[in-house]
Amino acid sequence: LPILNFFRRNGVLPTGILIDERFLDHRNPGRHPERPERIAALLELTRGLAPERFAFLKPRPADQEELLAVHSEAYVEEIAASRDRDLTILDPDTSAGRRSYDTALLAAGGVLTLLDAVLAGEIANGFAFVRPPGHHAERDRAMGFCLFNNVAIAAEHLRRWYGILRVMILDWDVHHGNGTQAHFYDDPDALYVSLHQFPFYPGTGAAGEVGKGEAQGTTVNVPLRAGAGDPEYLDAFRRVVEPVARQFAPQFLLVSAGWDGHENDPMSGHRVSTAAYTAFARGTLALARELCDGRCVAVLEGGYTTASLAECAAAALAEFSADDEAGGPLPEPGAETPPVDEVVAIQKRFWELPA
Ligand SMILES: [Zn+2]
After folding, report:
1. What are the tens digits of pLDDT across the range 270-304?
2. Which of 142, 184, 258, 301 is the most exposed place for a label (fewest CB within 10 A)?
3. How close is the Cα of 38 to the center of ligand 1, in Å?
């Protein structure tokens, strides 16, 4: 495995960081919010981290078979053909330049590099700072700045190579991950839990979208109106995310980590503080340690103000690399909130949830 910088600290495994200057190569035209500067800010951040706590990994490209576990052959060919043109418009928000396809292969493959390192016992957990992002990408459709669905490809990799069927995906990006939900909607062994602004782009993610057939209950949507922030997020974590995760009992936890609901990020109407996002990272890792030997890999989705993006990423990395006993309890939500009441009322058909 291409680990460039690998240390064990008193027998504690490092946190893997997957980042690469090649993630700067995908460019959208004009003043697009999903821009290379996002990765530049994270490159600068990660260069300053204490080397004894982190292992830096380089991505490999995803292969065709890995892409085809989630996308159609015609779609992969369509994206590959973008290499031959300066600009391919895929959707009103989403485009590809000559180097976007290769960058997207590295984004999807980079997450797999981290999974392999976790399962080889070389890192405890990991963060994939990749672009383009993935959770809006559908089987045969690019949208919402996303080309390939990195997190769905990752879940399928766990199944194919490791026999890990029960995978939980926690998506705290402020947008609903329609592509991820669609891929797993009838799959009872994949739990998709999303907190997002609603109604909002892309339009999906109502609380009543719960999965289909035997998979009912394994899609858990927490739609939150504009203006929501720390109280709703922390309430949802306590009353929905934690109990559902414990009952589902995943073998691996994946995170679609977007920080575009941050109070300083103009992309959305949510007002989540850095402290609440930090609590999410701590609580997620605590669930992974409790339920699946700490196996957890987070994948960058949104986050468009580079200052708050880097601040939240730094705080999450500190949580992921902290010792078991560090951190302390999550902050109190303060109050039970009506939108979470609604989710509890719907999901208690499938899970035992506190009233
Ligand atoms: Zn987003």
Report:
1. 999 999 999 999 999 999 999 999 999 999 999 99
2. 184
3. 13
Does the pLDDT of residue 5 top 70, yes or no?
Answer: no
Residue of 255, 234, 267 whose CA lies nearest to 320: 255
Alpha-carbon gap, residue 189 to 82, rounded angstroms: 35
Quote the ligand 1 centre to 21 CA distance (angstroms).
22
Among candidates 108, 97, 116, 169, which has minimal Cα distance to 134? 108
Ligand 1 geometric centre to CA of 1 (Å): 31
Paired residues of 190 in beta bridges:
167
| Amino acid 324: pLDDT | 72
Query: Is residue 263 within 8 Å of 229, Cβ to Cβ?
Result: yes
Query: One-letter amino acid identity for 292?
Result: C
Strands (E), the chain: 3-5, 15-18, 54-57, 88-91, 94-96, 125-128, 167-171, 190-197, 219-224, 252-257, 296-300
Q: Is 95 helix (H, G, I), strand (E, B) or coil?
A: strand
5 alpha carbon to ligand 1 midpoint, in Å? Answer: 31
3-state class percentages of the chain: helix first, strand second, coil last, to nearest 5: 40, 15, 45
Q: Is 165 exposed, middle or buried (0-12, 13-18, 19+ CB in 10 A)?
A: middle
pTM of the shown model: 0.96
Q: Cα separation of 106 and 102, whole Å?
A: 6
Alpha helices in 37-88 (DSSP H): 37-47, 64-68, 73-80
d(CA 34, CA 26): 9
Active site members = 136
Identify the residue with better confidence: 312 or 335.
Answer: 312
Answer for the pair 241, 171: CB distance below 8 angstroms, yes or no: no
**pLDDT band at residue 3 using 50, 70 and 90 as cut-offs:** very low
| Average pLDDT over every residue of 86-109 | 98
- Contact (CB, 8 A) for 263 and 355: no
Q: Rounded to the nearest 10 degrees, how much is the dihedral formed by the CA atoms of 132, 138, 139, 142?
A: -50
Q: Which amino acid is located at 134 in the chain?
A: G
Question: Model confidence at 334, in pLDDT bands (50, 70, 90)?
Answer: confident
